[in-house]
Amino acid sequence: MGRIQGNRQQRSLWKAVPTAYQLLKHPACKLLQMGHVSAVFLQHSADVKKDWSDHALWWEKKKTWLLKTHWTLDKYGIQADAKLQFTPQHKLLRLQLPNMKYVKVKVNFSDRVFKAVSDICKTFNIRHPEELSLLRKPRDPTKKKKKKLDDQCEDEALELEGPLITPGSGTDVLYIGPVKGNIYSSPGLYSKTMTPTYDSHDGSPLSPTSAWFGDSALSEGNPGILAVSQPITSPEILAKMYKPQALLDKAKINQGWLDSSRSLMEQEVKENEALLLRFKYYSFFDLNPKYDAIRINQLYEQSKWAILLEEIECTEEEMMMFAALQYHINKLSIMSSENHLNNSDKEVDEVDAALSDLEITLEGGKTSTVLGDITSIPELADYIKVFKPKKLTLKGYKPYWCTFKDTSISCYKSKEESNGTPAHQMNLRGCEVTPDVNISGQKFNIKLLIPVAEGMNEIWLRCDNEKQYAHWMAACRLASKGKTMADSSYNLEVQNILSFLKMQHLNPDPQLMPEQITTDINPECLVSPRYLKKYKNKQPGYIRDLITARILEAHQNVAQMSLIEAKMRFIQAWQSLPEFGITHFIARFQGGKKEELIGIAYNRLIRMDASTGDAIKTWRFSNMKQWNVNWEIKMVTVEFADDVRVSFICTEVDCKVVHEFIGGYIFLSTRAKDQNESLDEEMFYKLTSGWV
Asked: In 646-692, where does DSSP find H-type helix?
C-alpha cells in the first residue's frame, strides 16, 4: 500500500515523472512500504535489479486498475491522500475444473473475466472458451459453518495428482495468459487446419497437448488428467457435495457467476481463492471428437456431476442408462491408461466414420445422408391419442387421426374426415416440448405447452410405439423452432431419439457376468442418492446387488461403444433431458404479487412456477426485438414481436447476470463454421456489459 503525500519535494518528483507508466518504469525508482504509515516515495536504487513488467497500480477505493499508463495521475482523479497498491497482475488462483479436480494457476487479475477465461482455455486446449466462465463456489445452507481448515482439507482431497509446473519456474503453478518470453504466449493451437491425432491403443482422439505444453508436467503423463475421466473412488466424496434440494436452491447457485466485463480484482476475488470453471452457456458449438478430447471429457464430467448431484431431473430408467455409460467409460479409461486395449487401424477408421454424425451443435449437427426431394415437405399422418388436461376433469386420452404439416398438427375424428375441417388444430411454433417416456411401461408421451395470448395451452400426445414416438417427437422439436421436417436435421433427430430409447432397454435374459467383472462396480458412485433412498428399508448388500444387476443389464446396450463415442452418447442423453439447458433465477414479474422463476435457455425465456417448475409462458429469442435494463431499479425489460413486453426484477441476484445470459446467448447464435477462429470480444461486451 502507498499514500501519496503532497510535500514540496515529492511534488517536484511527480512533475518529473508525470505519468503512471513513467512512474513504474523509472530506472531509479521503487515503491517501499514503511510500516503502517504507507508512505510512497522514490528512492535511488540503481543497484536493485528486478523485473517489474507484470506489476501495475491498483486503486482499492475505486476498485480499478491504473492500466492506461499514458494517463497522468491527475487525469485518473488521484488526490494526495489516495492509497495505491503496486502489485503483480498475475496472481495465484485455485481453479476447480468441471471434473471437480483442483488446479493451481496464475491468472491475470487485471484482465476482464472473459479474456482471462479465454487464456485459461487456450492453455488447457479447450476450444470455444466463450461457452465457459467462472463461478463462485456455492455454500451449502443445510450445513453449519466449518472452519477454514476443514474446507481446505475437503478441497485437498480432490487435488490433481502431480504438479502443473511452469517451465523454468520450479513451482507447482501453471501460468495462464500471454506472458512475454513464455511458452504460453502462443495465441492457441486449435484451428481448422489442426491435424487430429489418435491414441495408438484405444483409437480415441487425443489433442496435441504435448506440443502445447512443451516440457511441462502436462506433456509427461498429465494429459490424462484433463482428457481422461477419473472415476469417483468413494461414496463419501459424493455425499459431501452440495446438492440443491429445490428449484430455488438451483437458482441461488447462479448468483455466483462473475461479471465477464470486469476483472477479478474489481469483483473482490482474492489471491488463492477457489473459483469454479464451468460451461456457462448450454450451446456447444462444433463439438468435434477429432480436436476436442479435453473439451469433450470436461463437458462429460460436468454433465455427469449434474446428474449425480441431482441438479437435473431424470427417470429411473435414464439413471440406470447414465450409470451404465459411466461404468463403461470408467472401465475403458482405466484400460486405456494401462495400455490394455489393442484396437486395429481399421477400428480407428470405423470410429472416425461413425462419429461423423455424432457432432453436437446448436441444431443437432449435420448428417452425411443424402437429402431427398427438397421441393416437397415431408408430412406425418397416423392415429395419435390426444389429451387436453383441465381441472376437475376425468376424461382421458381420445384417439384422433392426426396430420403433421409444416409446423402444425391437425386432429380429425377419423381418417375418412381428414379432407374436411379438423376438430382441433395446433401451431407448434414457439411451444415447449417435453418427453414423458417409460420404456418398461411402454409409455411414449409428448407434452406440449403451446403459447397463446392468455398463457400456455397444455396438450398431451400419446404414441403407440418407439418408432412412432421418435418421428413425432423429432417433428415437434423442429416445429417449436419454426422448422419443418424438410430440415436436414430431422432424420438425425429421429435416429438420436431411437438411440436414446434403445440405451434404456432392459435385457430380459442378461448374460451371467463373471465375478471379477461384477466386483469392480461401485453402484453408490454411479447413481444419485435419490435412487438409493428408494431401498432404504432393504439390507445394504441387497441394494448393492440389485442396482449392480440393473446397471449390468443396461450396460449390454452400450458395451460395444468406444470410449469417445460413449462420452458423446452421455452428453447427447444429457441434452435430451427435459430440464437441460435452463438456467434459473428468482424474479418478480411486473404486475405479479409473488416470486417466480425466470428460466433462460439458448433460444428462449421461460416464466416458471417457483414451486413446481411448470412453464407459465415462453418467449422465443427469434421473436425478440430488443431488451433493456433500468440500472436504477434493477429491472430487465424484453420486447418481442406483436407488441409483447416482459418486465421483471431479479430479487436475489444482480440483474447484470441475467442481462449477460441473454446477451451471451444472442452472441453465441451468431457463430458460424465458416468464420475464422478468433472471437469478436468487443461484440460480446456490447451485447453483455450494458454500458460499453
From this structure: 655-668, 681-688
Cα separation, 451 vs 460, whole angstroms: 14
Confidence of residue 139 (pLDDT cuts 50, 70, 90): confident
Spatial neighbors of 605 by CB under 8 A, at least 6 apart, are 598, 599, 618, 619, 621, 638, 646, 662
Grid cell, residue 427, equals 401451431
For β-strands 205-206 and 102-108, DSSP reports them as unpaired
Q: Position 343: which residue type?
A: N
Q: Tens digits of per-residue pLDDT, 362-381?
A: 444 444 443 344 457 889 99
Contact 587, 651 (CB under 8 A): yes
- Nearest-angstrom CA–CA distance, 203 and 196: 12
Which one is predicted more confidently, 33 or 88?
A: 88
Model confidence pTM above 0.90: no
Residue with C-alpha cell 487435488? 159
In CATH terms, 20-88 corresponds, of 3.90.1570.10, 3.10.20.90, 3.10.310.10, 3.30.930.10, to: 3.10.20.90
Query: What separation in angstroms does the CA of 602 have from each of 1, 79, 447, 615?
Result: 45, 47, 20, 16
| CATH label, 583-689, candidates 3.40.1160.10, 2.30.29.30, 3.30.70.100, 1.10.10.10 | 2.30.29.30
Helix (H) or strand (E) holding 277: strand 274-279
Q: Hey, which bits of 432-548 come out as E strands?
A: 432-438, 443-452, 455-463
DSSP 139-150: P-TTSPPPPHHH
DSSP H/E element including 648: strand 644-650
Sheet order of strands, 55-59 included: 2-3, 83-88, 55-59, 64-66
Q: Is 243 helix (H, G, I), strand (E, B) or coil?
A: coil
Contacts of 411 (CB under 8 A, 6+ apart): 384, 386, 400, 401, 402, 422, 423, 424, 425, 426
Question: Which residues contact residue 244 at a Cβ distance below 8 angstroms, ignoring those fewer than 6 apart?
Answer: 250, 252, 253, 309, 310, 311
Q: Which amino acid is at 519?
A: T
User: Residue 243 in contact with residue 310, Cβ under 8 Å?
Assistant: yes
d(CA 320, CA 317): 5
Q: How far apart are CA 347 and CA 199, in angstroms?
A: 12
Q: Hey, is 444 helix, strand or coil?
A: strand
Q: How many CB atoms lie within 10 A of CB 274?
A: 15
User: Alpha-carbon distance 178 to 183, whole Å?
Assistant: 9
* SS3 state at 401: strand
Q: Give the side-chain half-sphere CA count within 13 A for 85.
A: 13
Which CATH number is 379-485 given? 2.30.29.30
List the beta bridge partners of residue 619.
Answer: 605
d(C-alpha 379, C-alpha 390), whole Å: 30
Strand-pairing partners, residue 600, are: 583, 605
Burial label, 595 (beta-carbon count in 10 A; 0-12, 13-18, 19+): middle
C-alpha cell at position 273: 481463492
Residue with cell 456431476: 305
> For the segment 42-99, what is each residue's pLDDT rounded down to a tens digit?
333 344 577 888 999 999 999 999 999 889 888 999 988 899 999 999 999 999 999 9
Residue 614 CB contacts under 8 Å (≥ 6 apart), including other chains: 608
